[in-house]
Amino acid sequence: xxxxxxxxxxGLWTPANVITVLRIALVPIWLFVAEGSAPTSTDGFSLSALxxxxxxxxxxxxxxxxxxxxxxxxEVTTFGKFLDPIADKLAVVVAFAYLLEVGMxxxxxxxxxxxxxxxxxxxxxxxxxxxxxxxxxxLGKWKTAVTMVAICGLLLCRVLPPSSLEAGxxxxxxxxxxxxxxxxxxxxxxxxxKCWPYVAKGSRG
Length: 205
What we know:
Blueprint: H1 2-12, H2 15-35, H3 47-72, H4 78-101, H5 107-128, H6 138-159, H7 164-204
């Protein structure tokens, strides 16, 4: 019994899960730095905006790192499956709230993303009552990847002074944001379909 208890503890705090927790802790720190950054310069690169961009890029890359470690080390845990989506949601929602504040994102984007997360969180609670954990699908992973690339792109645009290059990049990443929104809605529907048997079972009960 002692051996089993030790194994449970070591299985919880794997390197992948530690990185996920670190990613969650970094999000409010990033927001604090971003809120204090100076506006983009009109005659050159913005150093403070560059720091904000690099910080978010680092947070985004840790998402890939913890997933790689969990799979390569055979340490995929229920705790990790639960915590990793929370870290992703926090990083995405906070970033879009910041981009909305600085006038680089639409309130509709934030609404759709937050509504999807409320839906998924509610469904997670329903299936948890059945003892079921629904891991992130490939569609959900693509949604997260495209969303974070779009956010990084918009943050990169804030580094650049106004120019044709900056305008072109801004247009490209604005379009990519809406691609991410479509994937977000699609993945929400996909998650609902997967969880529907448990939702329907609860309603009959």
